[in-house]
Amino acid sequence: MHIDQSWLYPGTVVVLLLLAYMQWQINAKKTMILILIVLGYIVYSHETGHTLTQLKNETVESFDEAVGNSKYEKRVVSPSMRPDEAQKEVK
Hints:
The chain has two domains: 1-50; 52-91, no CATH class. The protein is 67% helix and 0% strand. It is mainly α. The chain is built from four helices and no strands. The protein is elongated and about 65 Å long. The mean pLDDT is 80.
């Protein structure tokens, strides 16, 4: 079964808006705010192309570079940290 993905984004927006409205009707304000935040993130990431995963990856890489660990450098493993990997490095 093939799902037409052209309806995925607008369908998600409509469903989340309906859920937020239903939460507002039953006075669940915190849940409504949470749904609106998720909806805002979906719209923002769809319009700009920026995602939280990209932000996380950039942050991790900048932390790694700041402390001197780069994925391009050879990893230094001490025997107390990872014994299995340390044995492979020694051999």
